[in-house]
Structures are given as C-alpha cells and as structure tokens.
Design goal:
Rossmann fold, 7-stranded mixed sheet
C-alpha cells in the first residue's frame, strides 16, 4: 500500500518523492483546493510516504490534525523527521499495513489517499478498511495515474482509469461525488462514506 513502489524498474526513494520538480506538476495546495477539507478536520494521509502531502495538510489543518500512515519503515522515518523539523504538533506518524489501520472506527472526517490505490492486491478490501476510519458522511480524496504512457509512474498494468476507480469505490461502499484531471498524467476523485453505513 505504501507510496514506496514495489516495481523493480521504478525505484522509489525519499529524494525522488520530494524532488522540487514534483511540485510543478503536483502542487499540494492547488490540489487541496479541490478537496472538501476544512481547517478543523481530522484527516488520515494514507500511504503518506515521506510526507509530501502530510506537511501541507498539517499546515492547512490549523484546528485539526493529521494521522500520517505508511507500511514502509523508511517512509515513516522520513515523514517523522520532516514533521519534527517543521515543528508540526498536529501530526501523528503511524505504521499500518495494507488492510489494517491504527485509528478507531469512525474517528476521521477525511481520507487523503495519493497514488496508493493501485498498490494493494485487493483494492476493494483496502478501500473498505480505510473507509471504516471515517465518520458517516466523511470524505475520501484520491489521486491516481491515468492509463497513459508517462515518463514516470507505475506500469500500465497497475494503473486504474477513473471509471475503474469509481467502480472500486462504489464496491467498497462509497458514494461518488466528483472527479477531474490534475494534469495530463494524474486525476483526482472525491467519494463520500454513506451516512447510513
């Protein structure tokens, strides 16, 4: 589930994930402008990696907090180091696995899941497990790769197109809200946990 790639031809390093050029394509604050986040929300950054989105989320959540989660010890250590350096007191960095998360059921207002859904073997199980952390009516904001040839990113076989992602989310019990392109390589999608679930 980690944003750390398991593909041998796609070495994933903290340096690559934090490269300044990445912000030209994926500006965190421009992306967050499409996210239904409010400053008092309690949010999980699932598959946080070295905290590329964790820190901007924490700075926006002036009355809220972030649970930054990853399966990789290397990424957890890198994220914690960056959180400490930025002196952000509203972030808790936690180890998780693909289908089990260390946050109580119904404790969160939102989930921020960037470039992670294509990783787990059972994507519906992953989304269903993540959904359990949300309160009824809570939001889930997902970033993924289009199924097009790009210089970077996961192999085509691992990518999920928007229609496939919407279907996976609905199978996991989410209600589709909206989606759109972030750039020519990536897209975003917002889904909501049913108030009845």
């Amino acid at each position: 589930m980690s944003t750390e790639s398991s593909h041998p031809d796609m070495p994933s390093t903290v340096a690559r994930m934090l490269h300044p050029e990445r912000s030209q394509r994926l500006d965190p604050f421009r992306i967050m402008a499409h996210c239904p986040i409010t400053p008092q929300d309690i949010v999980a950054d699932v598959g946080c990696g070295p905290g590329y989105f964790t820190l901007p989320l924490a700075k926006f959540l002036i009355k809220g907090r972030v649970f930054a989660m990853d399966t990789s010890d290397e990424m957890i250590e890198a994220c914690q180091g960056r959180v400490n350096q930025a002196r952000l007191g509203n972030v808790q960095v936690l180890k998780c696995d693909d289908y089990k998360f260390p946050v109580e059921s119904g404790a969160l207002d939102g989930l921020f899941i960037a470039f992670v859904v294509h990783h787990p073997e059972d994507r519906v199980r992953f989304l269903t497990a993540a959904k359990e952390m949300l309160r009824p009516g809570g939001w889930c904001f997902i970033l993924e790769w289009h199924k097009t040839e790009t210089e970077s990113g996961p192999p085509q076989t691992a990518r999920i197109n928007p229609d496939e992602l919407r279907e996976l989310c609905e199978m996991a019990g989410f209600r589709y809200q909206e989606s759109g392109d972030v750039n020519n390589e990536n897209y975003r999608m917002t889904v909501i946990k049913s108030r009845l679930s």
